[in-house]
């Protein structure tokens, strides 16, 4: 084994291809969705408990932090959905080549950014 080969362990200097970035972001969005589900279920429980609980939850959504959390949850959901559709298409044999994978990854990023911005406009 060649012991003189270069080893780069600094992740900030590694240029990842688009497909790798999409894959990493897909995993991160899944973790965010898992974490935010508990918060959203608590809010749903509070809103269904009574009329006052519903009013409290509705009033909370008028605050900036709540809108940011909602937008982050929607962003994670949108990105995870778009990247998941790409994975399903690849399972069908569409975009399995090197160039097709790169184009699909760039398409996921572009479509997700557009939809996330539209969700932000809708939330605000």
From TrEMBL:
Q: Which keywords does the record carry?
A: Heme, Iron, Membrane, Metal-binding, Transmembrane, Transmembrane helix
User: Which domain of life does the UniProt lineage start with?
Assistant: Bacteria
Location (main, coarse) = membrane
| Keyword Iron set for record | yes
What does the record give as cofactor? heme
Q: How does it associate, per the subunit comment? A: Part of an enzyme complex containing four subunits: a flavoprotein, an iron-sulfur protein, plus two membrane-anchoring proteins, SdhC and SdhD. The complex can form homotrimers.
Give the protein family: Belongs to the cytochrome b560 family.
The free-text function statement in the UniProt record for this protein reads:
Membrane-anchoring subunit of succinate dehydrogenase (SDH).
**Record protein name field:** Succinate dehydrogenase cytochrome b556 subunit
| Record organism | Microbulbifer taiwanensis
